[in-house]
């Protein structure tokens, strides 16, 4: 009799009375258990021939990765679409296992990228093996006339992007992202993009805004894309389900505008000032409408929300107040005027209180979070102390938001603060990974 490698203590070892240490690739990190769990419908195991490693990896994805990805927001992409496609398509199944292994290894390293990990490491080998299986199956499907093949390829591209980011392969992540965006553009031209899960397309839009932080040597958040301003009035909402995506779309367009402004030199900013001012006024007006409606919504619905809904509402409140401040910052030429310091301190205090209130925040989300605005505050704050507080917010919550790693963004912000205030004034110890990242960027 031998160990059957089941998660935890295996059946064979227990039957024989042996002490089994287990081979559980999917064992959860210590100290990260949650009192709150997200509602994810139980799914049967895919009806596919699986190795024991694949079984454990898929179990980790289903019971841990999905919980992380949906801890802040209800997500049809992860709670429904991805799980359904895992059972329907073998390429998606292997791509999910690839991401699951990379996610677990990164979380066990406190959400540090794995670029320093040897390619001979078991996790890297398993992730690579699963990616080879997925790509092989996708190549076979591409030669067919299957009308669903583009959506399958698009979903796999998304999983490849996230896995590559965990493994520190940022150029590869950009390649998969570009390929997925090209598919979306082709589908838009033929008007068949409406057949694709909307939340999948939205995820690519978010990632498109995040690429430059890792993929160029220029200022962080430089944007090569035109501002994506949300047109039209902000529609009122009476329940949380429509409120979340409506605000997410508005805030996403605001992030696009903010990153575009911050990427401009002073000369280019002044040259485009008229058009930027118009977009700023429009975006500020819509944000003001959304904030007022959000306040009314909170008064009416807050008592009816569960713990996850309350936390999501608190995070949306942070988004609204921090984006209002960042919009003001974008219209200011450095140095930042002192009159914005009181509002900056209020926003920083709110973020610090949020992290202190919710110690079990997820370490992996595919949505917008606090990273973008905290980077802006860290690098454009009126005082060194305010900038360091923003850096500490990023470090206090080690996590990924899509392509963005809070620890690495904090490192870039520290470099900017040292350039502005002097290296001797910014006494922050960096990890080897952060130092390596800064050398390469």
Automatic annotation (TrEMBL):
InterPro entries: Fun_TF (IPR021858), Transcr_Regulatory_Proteins (IPR052360), Zn2Cys6_DnaBD (IPR001138). Keywords: DNA-binding, Metal-binding, Nucleus, Transcription, Transcription regulation, Zinc. GO terms for molecular function: DNA binding; DNA-binding transcription factor activity, RNA polymerase II-specific; zinc ion binding. Pfam families: Fungal_trans_2. This is Zn(2)-C6 fungal-type domain-containing protein.
């Amino acid at each position: 009799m031998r160990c059957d490698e089941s998660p935890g203590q295996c059946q064979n070892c227990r039957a024989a009375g042996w002490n089994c240490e287990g081979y559980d690739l999917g064992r959860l990190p210590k100290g990260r258990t949650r009192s709150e769990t997200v509602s994810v419908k139980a799914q049967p195991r895919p009806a596919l021939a699986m190795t024991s490693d694949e079984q454990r990896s898929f179990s980790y994805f289903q019971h841990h990765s999905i919980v992380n990805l949906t801890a802040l927001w209800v997500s049809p992409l992860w709670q429904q679409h991805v799980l359904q496609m895992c059972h329907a398509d073998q390429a998606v199944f292997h791509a999910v296992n690839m991401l699951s292994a990379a996610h677990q290894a990164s979380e066990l390293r406190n959400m540090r990228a794995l670029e320093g990990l040897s390619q001979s490491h078991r996790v890297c080998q398993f992730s690579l093996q699963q990616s080879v299986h997925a790509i092989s199956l996708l190549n076979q499907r591409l030669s067919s006339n299957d009308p669903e093949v583009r959506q399958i390829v698009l979903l796999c591209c998304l999983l490849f992007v996230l896995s590559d980011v965990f493994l520190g392969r940022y150029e590869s992540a950009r390649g998969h992202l570009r390929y997925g965006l090209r598919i979306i553009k082709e589908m838009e031209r033929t008007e068949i993009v409406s057949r694709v899960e909307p939340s999948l397309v939205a995820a690519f839009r978010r990632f498109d805004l995040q690429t430059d932080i890792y993929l160029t040597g220029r200022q962080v958040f430089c944007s090569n894309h035109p501002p994506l301003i949300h047109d039209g009035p902000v529609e009122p909402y009476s329940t949380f389900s429509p409120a979340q995506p409506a605000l997410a779309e508005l805030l996403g367009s605001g992030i696009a505008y903010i990153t575009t402004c911050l990427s401009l030199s002073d000369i280019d900013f002044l040259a485009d000032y008229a058009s930027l001012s118009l977009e700023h006024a429009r975006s500020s007006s819509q944000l003001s409408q959304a904030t007022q409606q959000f306040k009314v919504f909170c008064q009416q619905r807050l008592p009816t929300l569960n713990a996850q809904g309350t936390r999501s509402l608190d995070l949306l409140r942070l988004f609204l107040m921090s984006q209002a401040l960042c919009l003001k910052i974008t219209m200011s030429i450095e140095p930042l005027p002192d009159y914005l310091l009181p509002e900056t301190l209020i926003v920083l205090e709110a973020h610090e209180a949020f992290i202190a209130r919710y110690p079990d925040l997820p370490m992996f989300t595919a949505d917008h979070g606090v990273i973008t605005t905290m980077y802006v505050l860290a690098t454009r704050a009126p005082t060194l102390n305010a900038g360091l507080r923003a850096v500490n917010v990023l470090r206090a919550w080690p996590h990924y938001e899509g392509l963005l790693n809070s620890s690495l963004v904090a490192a870039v912000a520290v470099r900017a603060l040292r350039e502005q205030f002097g290296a001797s004034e910014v006494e922050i110890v960096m990890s080897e990974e952060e130092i390596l990242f800064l050398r390469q960027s």
